[in-house]
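On clarity, I found the account of how folds are encoded harder to follow than it need be. Since the whole study asks how a given chain folds, the encoding of that fold should be made plain. For the editor and my fellow referees, an illustration may be useful. An entry of this sort, consisting of the sequence and the corresponding backbone structure tokens, reads as follows:

:::
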Amino acid sequence: MTLCDRLPPVLAGLIGSGIAGSRTPAMHEREGAEAGLRLVYRRIDLDALGLGPAALPDLLRAAEWMGYAGLNITYPCKQAVVPLLDALSPEAEALGAVNTIVFQDGRRIGHNTDMSGFAEAFRRSLAGAPRGRVVQLGAGGAGAAVAHALLTEGVGCLVVADTDTTRAEALAEAMRARFGAGRAMACTDLAAAVAVADGVVNCTPMGMAKLPGSPLPPALLHAALWVADIVYFPIETELLRAARAAGCRTLDGGGMAVFQAVGAFRLFTGVEPDAARMLRHFAELSAAPQLLA
């Protein structure tokens, strides 16, 4: 028996819809083992359980009773979970969305590591990319985090497109309030906006294995664009495949997935993870998806 086997486990989990293929559990458990921890990470798939966001109060209560250190939260619960928490980190409060909950001293503390996760991936993979005008597809919880990251990273004007135009305008207004007039606007003509954009970022769930397709007609893509997608299962979405065919520089969702997990691991365990090691492990998982079956 090793020392790791004798340690009490650190329990964590992921709540979301259609997460059977998520690589997050494997990333956390592998990094926990490498760090000498017994980290047990479970999926709580709302689709598999026949539940929706309305079940969040019961799920959070159950996790507390079972001694979980914390939970990751993903689509479609990042905003719905906020009223159920006792406190928010400054990032989560600014975004109005939570992707990580820590249970601490009888309290539920909401955090958001999506913003820092996307920003780190963007800096590493799209260094030097033009940032004058960017079209963002999706204004939900993940979209709020990415919008903050893009404007923090120097995007001049962010054009927010969403099937819910009210939500797009609300996010754009929030970005203007924080970053200044002219820094964000709601999209009124997607084709016209993409035609003059430097980059496009998909922050919708479209492209996931459970929601195949592209959020942007391929005919709108042009070689002067860079294209990023936060979806990572599959790692090559239909949008990215079409973008590469059009000659665009691309960023897949793997980097954001890893770097948000780096932040969540730190919050759950109090241990500093090895980001380079987690990137290598994610690459291994992406090359061998059958391991997740």
The chain has two domains: 3-112+255-292, 115-252. The CA atoms of residues 72 and 78 lie 9 Å apart.
